[in-house]
Amino acid sequence: MKRHYSKLLFAALALIPAALLAQNLAPTPHYSDQAELSKVEEWVLSQGIPESIAPELAAILGLGSDRLPVKLKAFRTSDGTNLAFAVSTNPKQEGIVISALKTIRDSTKIYSLGTAWLTDRSGTLHQAIQVDASGARVVPNNSRAAEFNDIKAFFVKKLKATAPTTNSSPSPRKAATPAKKHSP
Question: Measured between alpha carbons, how far is 16 from 49 in angstroms, rounded to an integer?
Fold first, then answer.
């Protein structure tokens, strides 16, 4: 009986690497996340509005102590949160800042509440900061990584929704060049 179980165990162990290898051979998406984020960056640089990031936020993100010039695409959610994708236009300070900030107005002041992340074309999270009424502070990247990934995906979807679709076949209604008439 022991012999039978040991053969079964050996057979199962032999199948595990094959199953794992088969999983790795699964088709990959047409565009990787890195390529898609690079395309979002290009979209924002070409169609975004010129803005700047406040010196305090730029400093805490490690992007210098002055206002950081950026091109920006932003979308407001139904709860009033602004999702923004900002690309540095300063050649000395490369970087992408993605944020989810809500402006709060109370009787004494106006402030933002939310999170901002520093990333790059590869989509690697470099820095996360939490913003509230008392200011901005660095938080562990893993504490907000899921939200970061959701907002990255949001911007990739926005890009895909605005990208014109291409049709590889010509229109059946009209020929590309008119037919020539032959004279008799």
Answer: 52
Decide if 48 contacts 88 (C-beta within 8 A): no
Bridging pattern class, strands 127-132 and 110-119: antiparallel
Residue with tokens 């890009």: 159
Euclidean distance between the first and final Cα of the chain, in Å?
96
Task: For residue range 22-75, list pLDDT tens digits in order.
Answer: 333 333 343 455 567 899 999 999 999 999 998 988 899 888 889 999 999 999
Nearest residue to 56 (alpha-carbon basis) of 102, 140, 119, 112: 112
Which residues, at least 6 apart from 86, have a Cβ–Cβ distance to it below 8 Å? 44, 48, 51, 53, 70, 71, 72, 96, 97, 98, 99
**Two structure tokens written together for 127:** 């820095």
Rg (CA), the chain: 26
Q: Which two tokens stand for residue 81?
A: 């949160």
Note whether 122 and 35 are within 8 A (CB).
Answer: no
Helix then strand then coil, in percent of the chain rounded to 5, is 35, 30, 35
Q: Please give the C-alpha separations between residue 32 and each of 20, 35, 157, in angstroms, as whole numbers.
A: 21, 5, 13
β-partners of residue 113 are 102
